[in-house]
Amino acid sequence: MNKIENNKAWFLVLPVFILVAFSAIIPLMTVVNYSVQDVFDTNTRYFVGTEWFKAILNDAALQSALMKQFMFSFTTLSIEIPLGIGIALLMPKRGMAASLCLVLIALPLLIPLNVVGTIWQIFTRSDIGLMGWSLREMGVAYNISRNPVDAWATIILMDVWHWTPLIALLCYSGLRSIPEAYYQAARIDRASRWAIFRYIQLPKLTNVLIIGILLRFMDSFMIYAEPFVLTGGGPGSSTTFLSQALTTMAIGQFDVGPAAAFSIIYFLIILAVSWVFYTTIMNMQKEK
Amino acid sequence: MKSRIALIVYILFILLPIYWLLNMSFKTNQEILGAITFWPQNFTFENYQKILTDPSWYKGYINSMIYVSLNMVISLTVALPAAYAFSRYKFVGDKHLFFWLLSNKMAPPAVFVLPFFQLYSSVGLFDTHIAVALAHCLFNIPLAVWILEGFMSSVPKEIDETAYIDGYSFPRFFAKIFIPLIGSGIGVTAFFLFMFSWIELLLARTLTATEAQPIQVIMTRTVGASGIDWGVLAAAGVLTIIPGIFVIYFVRNHIAKGFALGRT
Amino acid sequence: MSWMVWTTPTAGFFIGIGLILASMSIWQYVSPSIERKGFLPIKTTRGDRLFIGLLTSAFIHLGIVGFTDLSILVATAISAIWMAILMRWG
């Protein structure tokens, strides 16, 4: 669509700008200020320059948290996106069954994050949880507080359970916007199931998938409450992701200086990855 | 047929953990800690009774609902005109402003916890519903602008032009013609706003103490000196799911109608 | 304001960023920039190149501060040169 050049449009955007700036820019400036000082309280503080940045960048525990974070985000996304598309394709198209499906599938999305953690913590306990108990009865050695592999598998399963519905919902909606005539034309051409998916359905899905993938990347990169409740970051620190390391530092130990430096690095990483992703997709669309 | 079975298996996978929570919420603690039972043997409403008769418990639900609704109203009110501007006009810095808005969705809340606490304390809003609602605007307004802009771009511009020729002023055109046209979009957006505000924990916990504390924070106190009160914990968990069921039920038709979001 | 624990260097930093953004907006308003293709793999406007420049400069600073013993001024100098190249030929 050709857009009209009109700088008065700024007035329509202004309320959004002011509201978001209030909550975004003031705290961001404060974080930057923290990051170059050793703060005890507002009157007792010392300028330390870039010392915190140096310490954080060379901290082995944080480097490993970053690696774990990338691994976690990559794994969950590569399961959730194909699975979500698959579920969307399977869902009934209209009628009561479609409504029921939508409501049931959307359920996990609307549960507070720490409650999701609680549900899975209960579910996987071997004394009172269905899954933990069943696995034990079947003779599988499964213990999320001792075995890092079990802890990882459970967190990924929980994330898939919680967030695949988002992808499924977005894709389902994208699929519904395809006119029936397209399918009829494909049937006349005797197109295969795969051809229909590749040339009719997938192109219609790209836009909703962009939103889905970006949302999932950002949120999975910031995951905090769910693993915190489920495993507490353990066993050891095997499931301590970035947000949890940061929160422990900022609130638990009250080291605001290093925590702020950490925050800035963290934010820059997300910003860079998202920007590359966003620009690549926008350019792909422009070329089409 | 095969696809039906796959779908049913998936839905079972979704429902099983929730069923287990529901099952536990109707049991006594004795039964929970005893042998595994697949449905409550001594069916009891005791756990729910405890929550629904104690103001310090059920006020948590009211608090959560107040700030979530406030957030939805604020976000939609400011995001609608902004999304219209992004979908119709070119202006200085538009692309960068859009990405800056999105970047706030990327800022890990953990980054902002401490300055947020101080910011809202210094303007005297600490422990109020409006504080949490405003803080959630940080990620909800960008999301609302993003989704609404997609819906608005799919409305042909000729409609705007015809309305202006017919003598409609901008506010009247916007309220009378444009908003009804993107009704589904507003429904879908409201769903996502509700979702992200309702499930958020870190900011809501940091910005409240007693007066505006949300339910997911109050829940953590079932962990007492004598161990965890599993039954009440499960009942509280079940109650946090119910508002979501209503919301998804109301927007199901908008989602089923189909939308293909996108910027061009 | 005192809880924001301002220091002179960070205040200077934000004033600098603010001035850059303001002057870029005015420049854009007076003579709008047209998208072009330089050595970067994508078409960019002046504002895009500024953003890319600032973001990469941040990483240059992090790299030098974190993993070498060089002064931060070295990072700033490298960033300034990189920024100039990017704005002109990017």
TrEMBL record, chain B:
Entry membrane topology: Multi-pass membrane protein
Pfam families linked to this entry: BPD_transp_1
Entries under InterPro entries matching the protein: BP-dep_ABC_trans_perm, MetI-like, MetI-like_sf
Keywords: Cell membrane, Membrane, Transmembrane, Transmembrane helix, Transport
Cell compartments where the protein resides: Cell membrane
UniProt GO BP: transmembrane transport
GO cellular component, one term: plasma membrane
Predominant location: membrane
CDD domains, per the entry: TM_PBP2
Chain segments annotated as coiled-coil in the UniProt record: none
Transmembrane segments: 5-22, 65-86, 98-117, 129-148, 177-199, 230-251
Listed Gene3D superfamilies: MetI-like (1.10.3720.10)
Residue ranges occupied by any ABC transmembrane type-1 domain in the UniProt entry: 61-251
Entry similarity comment: Belongs to the binding-protein-dependent transport system permease family. MalFG subfamily.
Record protein name field: Carbohydrate ABC transporter permease
Organism: Nitrincola tibetensis
TrEMBL record, chain C:
InterPro entries linked: DUF2160_TM
Transmembrane parts of this sequence: 12-30, 50-66, 72-89
Entry keywords, A to Z: Membrane, Transmembrane, Transmembrane helix
Keyword Membrane: yes
Pfam families reported for this sequence: DUF2160
Designated name of the protein: DUF2160 domain-containing protein
Lineage: Bacteria, Pseudomonadati, Pseudomonadota, Gammaproteobacteria, Oceanospirillales
